[in-house]
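Tutorial, part two.
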Amino acid sequence: MYQSLDTRSVHCAPSFEPRRDDECVASLRAALQRYLDLMYDCDVSRFDDVFAPTVQLHGFRDGAMQCWPAGVYRNILAKRQSPKSIGAPREDRLLLLDFASRTQAMIKCRCASRPCCS
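Running the prediction step on this input gives:
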């Protein structure tokens, strides 16, 4: 599934240096952490801190392409049993942070939780 993070507060000044501004990287990492936390605990009270109101989730479910607007996805998360509630260990991490321009970046992450063993 592809998801858009709410990074409205993230703005990077133009730079021609090979390294990006530390504040910009920190802002993107913080946005990613909010997303990963939401996927782990499904606390939809923080949904608007993670996703823009116009977000749409696109991907394949049950062999068919799906497109869910923000409200539908919020309801899906609200009804889902969170990995946190069953004590599943977190295995999420940042794999790639790539800046395409001063206003666009791509984050690739692993968002996984193993079932809790008793």
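The chain has three helices and four strands. In part three we will examine how such features are distributed along the chain.
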